[in-house]
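Hi everyone, sorry if this is the wrong subforum. Our group has a chain we'd like a structural model of before ordering constructs, and none of us has done structure prediction before. Sequence below.
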Amino acid sequence: MIVNHQHKFIFLKVSKTGGSSVEAFLRRFCVPGDIVTWLDDDEEQAIRGTGACLPMGFAKPAAGVPPLARLLMAFNHRKTLRRHGLSPHAGAARVKRYVGDRVWGDYEKFCVVRNPLDRSVSQFFWTAANRGWEDAATHFHVRFDEFLQSNDFRRLNEKGRDVYAIDGRVVANRVLRFETLEQDLGRTMRDLGIDTPLELTRFKSTQRPKGDFAAMLNDRQRQVIRDTFAFDIEHFGYVV
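Answer:
Right subforum, don't worry. Here is the predicted structure as tokens:
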């Protein structure tokens, strides 16, 4: 998640949409005083030396934050930052409160969305890697059913709809699509006055085996995804 004051934009980071790649690229145009949330440790390591700035500006305590929490925020304690500051997938309502009405109203706000089927499968293989499900591909349907009951699946909405919408209304001025990301991001950069070659670093590409796993989902699994992501399907026209 990024707030860039020079070019007056706010990047709202939806999970599993290539957001880390976009953020790593956008960091090259940030300077002290901007807000840049953290990437995973391996991602931070991968972009060192590319001209991307370090994380900064996300730990400003709001009014009423307890003293201990303020101290933890000063030391970048991530659990506390997620509760009281800004996290990488901070929701639009929290970002608006954090930056204030003037910045929120004046700046271009954009995000990336993705077909809920593909996004769910991407999250599934991230979950599988973290839980040690070595049979995630060979026993795909069984493991995917287990994933559909998990908090990782339920939190996809929080790291999606809540990132770009407030009270059921999409507040991002621009919605880029994962399926046409380079074209959409390139157009956005030109409109913001940033004329530079688009170079996106690819992250986590080894976590997902080759194959069209979204096409392998059965009707029941697809229906769970339809019900869960009805908002995304309605607003962005994805076919699930």
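For your construct planning: The radius of gyration is 18 Å. The CA atoms of residues 5 and 123 lie 32 Å apart.
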